TrEMBL record:
Keywords for this protein: Hydrolase
Official protein name in the record: HAD family hydrolase
Any GO MF annotation of the entry: hydrolase activity
NCBIfam families in UniProt: HAD-SF-IIB
Annotated Pfam families: Hydrolase_3 (PF08282)
Iron among keywords: no
Length: 249
């Protein structure tokens, strides 16, 4: 069985690398004959530092599906069309929005250094921080709407793009039209109904509805789509991984 794991808030807590306990349980999952796949909102660049070296070549989906990698190689990158980029630039300019914009590797960032997202931004210094106009293509956008949340959401909803609002961080996470975690997983050959999904937020919904069984970590309304809900604690997550790993052994 394939086991698909979101990272932040699911098996990685407070932006830290996977704990020894989580790593041991993932290794046990593999020993039981299962395949481990990671699916995160982070681009692949920022996903790698959270993982132990031995797992950095595992199949993975980044940027909510915009990036897909396997065996240490990027196999798919989906960028915004030029028209959508212009719309997003106009919104940024109109409301003077801080942002994080990712290309296929480098990025532009104007948000606060105090924001949690900044602490997870290219910690290994693998990429270049550049100005927005220097990015040749735009793959993923995070906007910090502040007091303009309602107006920005309404404007974005008029565009053919994928939008996820993370209220706890007060950010809007934007991906190209039709791109989500399930879209990325399908590019890795994952088949609907033949995987177990673990996640904790709205951006996990597309893979939850395609999974054989699913686990929501923590208290989120997306739990309505899952088979099980567990507490947002390492112990509870480890126990749920162990349970499903044994069930499908």
């Amino acid at each position: 069985m394939k086991f698909v794991f979101d990272l932040d808030g699911t098996i990685s807590f407070k932006g830290k690398p996977l704990s020894t306990g989580i790593i041991a349980e993932l290794e046990n999952c593999i020993v039981n004959g299962h395949e481990v796949i990671f699916a995160s909102a982070r681009p692949i660049r920022d996903l790698l530092p959270v993982l132990p070296e031995a797992m950095q070549t595992f199949p993975m989906v980044g940027g909510n599906g915009a990036f897909v990698a396997n065996a240490g190689e990027m196999i798919a990158v989906t960028a915004f069309q030029t028209e959508m980029v212009e719309h997003i630039r106009h919104l940024i300019s109109t409301y003077k929005l801080p942002y994080l914009v990712d290309s296929n590797w480098d990025y532009a960032y104007t948000g606060s250094e105090a924001h949690p997202i900044y602490r997870n931004l290219d910690p290994l210094k693998l990429a270049k921080k550049v100005t927005l106009d220097k990015l040749q293509e735009i793959v993923k956008v995070v906007l910090f709407p502040g007091e303009h949340l309602k107006e920005v959401v309404e404007a974005l909803q008029q565009l053919p793009i994928s939008i996820y609002e993370h209220t706890s961080e007060n950010i809007l996470d934007i991906s190209p039209n039709g791109i989500d975690k399930w879209n990325g997983l399908s590019k890795l050959g994952v088949v609907a109904g033949e995987f177990i999904a673990f996640g904790n937020d709205a951006n996990d919904a597309p893979m939850f509805v395609k999974a054989k069984e699913s686990v929501c970590v923590g208290d989120h309304r997306v739990s309505e789509l899952t088979t099980m809900q567990v507490a947002s604690s390492e112990e509870a997550v480890i126990a749920s991984i162990r349970s499903y790993s044994a069930k499908y052994k």
